[in-house]
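Q&A log
Question type: sequence-to-structure
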Amino acid sequence: MAIPILKTWKRYFLDNPDEGLGSSYERIIINDKLSSICKQKKISTVLEVPLFGFTGLSGINSMELARQGMKITIADNDRERIDLIERIWRSTGLKAEILYLKKFSDLFFPADTFDLAWNYSALWFVDDLAVFLDKLTSCVSQVIMFCVPNKTGLGYLSQKYISGADLRKYLEEDNIRPAKIKNLMHQRGWKLVEKGYFDNPPWPDIGMSKEELLQLFGLKFLIRENRENRRSISIMDYYRDKDPDFREKMMKYSWLEQISPKFVKFFWSHHKYLVFEPE
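Response status: OK
Response body:
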């Protein structure tokens, strides 16, 4: 989670799509989880809403599912962001229906339009979570997955301390509380079938580049060397078929994800996921 992206998200579209190692690894872990669910449930239609979270380029979380042939619909409440997202999808040749919603609770789809709906670190942008879930659960037939920041994680707690004013000003933090989500979904006839921690790499959820981290700890003299030696990292080359080994390169860092017990993930994992199905 990187709260400053609330103010800096445009630079990933306009300057450099370099997302760094942390966000790049995170995207592969998300892809694998989504792909597993879609294969198991034979998913063909997917809705991602809201789509703006805290990971570099906005609107590309569902690209892997588009590569696998699924029909993708994504929605956002910022017209400028939609224009930029449409441009980057066109650059890959992948297809998605990209929609503008003034409010996320304005979902208008008929019943059972989608097999799967999901979002990533985005529920706290919803103005009225109960109304939003009314609309969301009515248009989905099989699975709904929410990914939320791990509120017990050291990274989340440190970033909340550093950027608490922005969090209170721009976000509905109560919307990412798993107990609240579970209760509201149960009221709408959906049961929690799976939950867990994920995005558990061997580095903390610092929410900033390593250059910024060095500066924070007074190690400015290392920043120039770090920038000169560091190569740009972006999953977009993978989606444009220019870096077919991208997933394998990121999965080299998944050893902690695979071996750490739950009590380690409790304070180290960057995110949690909750998977719901109709009761």
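Response note: The chain has 14 helices and seven strands.
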